[in-house]
Specification:
Blueprint (H helix, E strand, L loop, with lengths): L2 E2 L8 E2 H10 L3 E6 L4 E4 L3 H5 L3 H4 L4 H6 L3 E2 L3 H7 L3 E7 L4 E10 L5 E10 H10 L22 H12 L7 E4 L6 H11 L7 E5 L5 H9 E2 L12 E2 L1 H4 L4 E5 L6 H13 L1 E2 L8 E2 L3 E6 L3 H6 L5 H7 L2 E4 L10 H15 L5 E2 L1 H9 L5 H15 L3 E2 L6 H9 L9 H20 L2 H8 L3 H11 L9
Parallel strand pairs: 9-16, 9-17, 10-13, 13-16, 18-19
Antiparallel strand pairs: 1-2, 3-4, 3-8, 5-6, 6-7, 7-8, 11-12, 14-15
Helix pairs in contact: 14-16, 18-19, 18-20, 19-20
The chain binds adenosine-5'-triphosphate (ATP).
Adenosine-5'-triphosphate (ATP) binds next to α8, α14 and α16.
InterPro entries: AAA+_ATPase, AAA_lid_NorR, Dicer_dimerisation, HTH_TyrR, P-loop_NTPase, PAS, PAS-like_dom_sf, PAS_fold
Protein name: HTH-type transcriptional regulatory protein TyrR
GO molecular function, one term: kinase activity
Length: 460
């Protein structure tokens, strides 16, 4: 390894050790060339964007900005004005950064490099507060707008698909285990649709008794029933006019209410409880369930006609254990959120993050979110493996597929599995996988059969 003489006193510095030092920096450092291509980045980028160095190097910073990894953009102004720039930025994972970009010019006064450093504002605010300068991170400070976070190709293709259906008014049915993010996806669909300026209202059909659910949805006229408000009440169907109504846990809705809902979907009209006059509404319905509706239809617990009406666009939200690539970015996202909420500055060790990826997350993203909140509150300055609940340890040890690999062969097999699955999720054909992984198509077919059986149904 090349020695970097004269850089340090009394120590022989190698390029390798220099890179290591930069990786230990808690601030992010990244360098762009004259074409806005990222030519260097340190490890801190993972906690800010959920991207590994290798996902970032060689990419155009303009392209990453357009994909929503940070905002606002800083590069165009630095390249244009050729002057240093300081700015507050927020990232896709909800980190708030104080970013500085310094252009380095060549002899022709052209921008040769831009050296950018980004420090988390949370740390900065806490530091200032500790210095008693009166600046403090407020618990009620405005929350950064956080999008649906994912690094998973399958979820990314769901998001792309929802953008395609943004202009339609079709009813959407989102199925998936509890806590997978069905509610977050419903909001995302609303935000990307042409109804985004209209209301987005949610009702959980399991949380309200059947009689009350009907009046909540349809509203009622004055004196409609004993105990009713004297002036009557507007229902959610009417309140969501021009917007989206999200019916969570639709599988719990009574059969009689299902019949009424079907009518609203078909005719776009309804009559409030106790009333005679029809009301017209323009709404999009998104329904979600963690139950198997097709099975419920067979068992006559759910109306077949309503099922087909809701099912016009059918999306399946995969459980977290099938999208392990989301665990680290989500963990960082929740770390930023709860650090901000509790005015803390906790860090998390790499070993701890690795351990989180081995766990199966039966409660999905909600369970991960709750755990990170608890860890932020209860751990010392660095959240480490020893802070994890015993239950996580035990379950990893009980399940060999989730525990760290016990041999080189097993590690190779797991790595192969991950690479093939990732490629198949992206390309969806053995020919393209073969090309992507530079293997024969026969080999690709074999590997897909071995590792991707569960991915072969392409419906969302
Ligand atoms: N991709 C994501 N990015 C950021 N936060 C997420 C994501 N997915 C889920 N969450 C968070 O996890 C929690 C659970 O998500 P959500 O309520 O949408 O799940 P759900 O599938 O609708 O659950 P349930 O079936 O119990 O209603 C929420 O606090 C949500 O903000």
């Amino acid at each position: 390894m090349k020695q970097l003489s004269n850089l340090t006193k009394n120590v022989d510095m190698t390029l390798e050790s220099l890179v290591k030092i930069l990786d230990y920096s808690s601030d992010e450092i990244f360098v762009l060339d004259g074409n806005k291509t990222i030519i260097y980045v340190n490890s801190a980028c993972e906690k800010h964007y959920g991207l590994k160095k290798e996902d970032v190097l060689g990419k155009s910073s303009v392209e990453l900005f357009e994909q929503g990894y940070w905002k606002p953009s800083l590069a165009p102004e630095v390249y244009e004005k050729k002057k240093p720039l300081f700015m507050k930025q927020t990232t896709n994972l909800g980190a708030e950064l104080l970013t500085s970009a310094i252009p380095i010019l060549n002899e022709n006064n052209e921008v040769e490099l831009v050296v950018t450093t980004a420090r988390e504002l949370q740390n900065y605010n806490l530091l200032k507060r500790n210095e008693k300068t009166g600046v403090s991170a407020s618990k009620h400070s405005e929350q950064t707008e956080i999008d649906l976070i994912t690094n998973c190709e399958k979820v990314k293709s769901i998001l792309k698909f929802t953008q395609k259906i943004a202009v339609t008014n079709s009813t959407v049915l989102i199925q998936g285990e509890s806590g997978t993010g069905k509610g977050v996806l419903a909001r995302y669909i609303h935000q990307t649709s042409k109804r985004k300026e209209g209301p987005f209202l949610t009702i959980n059909c399991a949380a309200i008794p059947a009689e009350l659910l009907e009046s909540e949805l349809f509203g009622y006229t004055p004196g409609a029933f004993t105990g009713a408000n004297r002036t009557g009440k507007i229902g959610l169907l009417e309140a969501a006019d021009q917007g989206t109504l999200f019916l969570d846990e639709i599988g719990e809705m009574s059969l009689s209410l299902q019949a009424k809902l079907l009518q609203v979907i078909q005719d776009k009209k309804f009559i409030p409880v106790g009333g005679y006059e029809e009301k017209k509404v323009d709404i999009r319905i998104i329904a979600a369930t963690n139950r198997n509706l097709a099975e419920m239809v067979q068992q006559r617990q759910f109306r077949e006609d309503l099922y087909y009406r809701l099912n016009v666009i059918d999306i399946k939200m995969p459980p977290l254990r099938e999208r392990k690539e989301d665990i680290i970015p989500l963990s960082y996202n929740f770390l930023h959120t709860f650090n901000r909420l509790y005015e803390m500055n906790k860090l998390i060790s790499q070993e701890c993050l690795d351990m989180l990826t081995y766990y199966s997350w039966p409660g999905n993203v909600r369970q991960l979110e709750n755990l990170i909140e608890r860890l932020v509150v209860t751990s010392d300055s660095i959240i480490d493996v020893s802070d994890l609940p015993e239950m996580i340890y035990e379950s990893i040890q009980d399940n060999p597929a989730l525990s760290p690999p016990s041999s080189l062969n097993e590690a190779i097999d797991r790595a192969k599995r991950e690479i093939v699955r990732k490629s198949f999720q992206k390309h969806k054909s053995s020919r393209k996988v073969a090309k992507d992984l530079k293997i024969s198509q026969t080999n690709a077919v074999k590997l897909i059969q071995k590792y991707c059986e569960d991915l072969r149904d392409h419906s969302f």
